[in-house]
Amino acid sequence: MIKNEREYRVTRTQAARFEQALAELSSGSSEEGLHPLLEKAQRDSLQSQMDELREQIAEYEALRSGTRTVISLDSLEELPQALIQARIAAGLSQAQLADRLGLKEQQVQRYEATDYAAANLARLSQVIHALDVHVREDVFLSGTTEALEGIFGRLRDLVSETVAANRSRLARS
Hints:
This protein has 7 helices and no strands. It has helices spanning 5-26, 36-65, 79-89, 94-101, 105-113, 121-131, 145-172.
């Protein structure tokens, strides 16, 4: 996940390098005598890495442009990444968030670099307030019918997403 402008620039540069390397492979500039299976593996590896970088770039650009208004979480463990995404979507730099929190920029950088591992609940609450986001989480009590319905609903969603992703991958192949 791209967390700031510097990482965005670095990721774009890396994607361009992978694209260039892939173009060189496709144009026949590969090593002479390289076994076709090795060449295909090399090409597939470059393509996979390039696709992953493009996904990260697209996600960051979508957040920056404001086209994403809801970030869905399946668990509380995903909250730190959602807060980073919310900061990006709000158009705030790490320095600007630090100002809102009364912290130094380096502290926000450390929080985000470690996905808020050292932040306590009070600090996370301050970040949520500073970003002006609303967080809603369902708490399912064990043994209730609603809990099972929620679990099955999330499982259905996960299966649907997995099927869609697999179809997309097959279409690209």
